[in-house]
Amino acid sequence: EVLLVESGGGSVQAGGSLRLSCAASGYTSSVSCMAWFRQAPGKERERVASVQRDGWPTYADSVQGRFTISRDRAKNTLYLQMISLKPEDSAMYYCAASAFPWCSPSADAYKDWGQGTQVTVSS
Fold first, then answer.
1. How many CB atoms lie within 10 A of CB 14?
2. pLDDT of residue 22
3. What separation in angstroms does the CA of 118 have from each of 23, 41, 65?
4. In 10 A of CB 18, how many CB atoms?
5. 106 CB-side CA count, 13 A
6. pLDDT by residue (tens digit) across 62-81?
7. Which parts of 1-123 are beta strand (E)?
8. How many alpha carbons fall within 13 Å on the CB side of residue 60?
9. Rounded Cα distance, 24 and 109, in Å
10. Which of 32, 48, 36 is nearest to 7 (CA)?
11. What is the mean pLDDT of residues 87-109?
12. Own/partner pairs for 58-63, CB < 8 Å, 24+ apart?
């Protein structure tokens, strides 16, 4: 099992920036893909960005060019740098980990999840 703990959420105005962190512990050697998902009230959980152990990152079209995912394997930490935030980015953001060799866009493919961190962007 992998324990994931997110931090860094908060409230910002449109155009602002936030950096989310996700500290992983436990059986981290089993993790191949790590991802950030988000879920707004009344909406499905959607993948925002993901990165494989030694692969290229993948982004949702809605955040391409504004969000950057990175992974520090030495610190077992995943990051999500978010700039030019928009009100529609407001959601609970979750860190997820998968042992699959590729990064699936489906939340069902991820076994381990953090508790979430709230991001609120006001106009």
1. 13
2. 98
3. 16, 12, 21
4. 21
5. 3
6. 999 999 999 998 999 999 99
7. 2-7, 10-13, 18-26, 33-39, 46-52, 57-59, 67-72, 77-82, 91-98, 112-113, 117-122
8. 16
9. 18
10. 36
11. 95
12. 58/103, 62/88, 63/89
* Amino acid found at 95: C
d(CA 79, CA 72): 8
Q: Which amino acid, 74?
A: A
Q: Tokens representing 9?
A: 């959420």
In tens, the pLDDT along 8-65 reads 999 999 999 999 999 999 888 888 999 999 999 999 999 999 999 877 899 999 999 9
Phi, psi of 78 (to 5 degrees): -110, 140
β-strands 33-39, 91-98: how paired?
A: antiparallel
How open is the CA angle 78-82-88, to the nearest 5 degrees? 120
